[in-house]
Amino acid sequence: MIMYTTGVQDINSFSKFGSLKEVYEIIWIFVPILTLVLGITIGVLVIVWLEREISAGIQQRTGPEYAGPLGILQALADGTKLLFKENLFPSRGNTRLFSIGPSIAVISILLSFSVIPFSYHLVLADLNIGIFLWIAISSIAPVGLLMSGYGSNNKYSFLGGLRAAAQSISYEIPLTLCVLSISLLSNSLSTVDIVEAQSKYGFWGWNLWRQPIGFIVFLSSSLAECERLPFDLPEAEEELVAGYQTEYSGIKFGLFYVASYLNLLLSSLFVTVLYLGGWNISIPYILSPELNKVDGIFRTTIGLFITLAKTFLFLFIPIATRWTFPRLRMDQLLNLGWKFLLPISLGNLLLTTSFQLLSL
Question: Which residues are listed as membrane-spanning (predicted)?
Answer without folding.
Answer: 26-50, 97-123, 129-150, 255-277, 297-319, 340-358
